[in-house]
TrEMBL record:
It holds the Pfam family Rib_5-P_isom_A. Keywords: Isomerase. Its EC number is 5.3.1.6. InterPro entries: NagB/RpiA_transferase-like, Ribose5P_isomerase_type_A. It comes from the Bacteria. The keyword Isomerase applies. It is an enzyme of class 5 (isomerase). GO terms for cellular component: cytosol. GO terms for molecular function: ribose-5-phosphate isomerase activity. One of its GO terms (biological process) is D-ribose metabolic process. This is ribose-5-phosphate isomerase.
Amino acid sequence: MLQEAMKMIKPEMTVSFGGGSTVVRLAKYLCDEDETLRKTLKVTTPSLETMEILNNLNYQIVALDDVEKIDVAFDGCDYATQNLNAQKCMGGIHVDEKKAAKKALRYVLLTKPERIGKTYNAKLPICAEVEQDKADLFLKMADQAGFEAKNRPGIKTSRGNLLFDLHNEKCTQADAKDVETWPGVVGTSSFFDLCTDVIYEEKGKTIHLRKEELK
């Protein structure tokens, strides 16, 4: 999988490394395999944890907000469909991850075969970043829509907002899209129509799904 991802990185590119252990493995693998290539790259990240690791690996780092275009962005996910929609509910940094995804020519998810499915996975919660002063209205909307909303206690995002996990095992993809329109919602962990590639390994074989090859 890492070798397949490496093929997408060329000299002088601007590359984003998102959150998660697999993406960090790729950043380290690149250094080990091609130090010359590593020195030509500009890299950015939506993750403070990944930022620290990239610093320690001596990458040339640029702030995400200062980058207009990203050649390729790598990220992980909790679940992805075969038509390249994704759910990223656990990390809670999805707003900044989406910022990287929208700037990227290729937005690539590195994942595991058990996290690939045909349709939206309603068993996973939707994580929503919500403005603090709109939290009460958000909770009313969640109740009306049939969601159980749980605040992540003691956690605020870099923008000073709250994180809520929304649970509803009858949720559809359309319902998930609707959550993005609720008052106070800055962004959600549902990644629709953003991903261009998914790479994973299954039974010793590397699988690379590409947007251009979808039927």
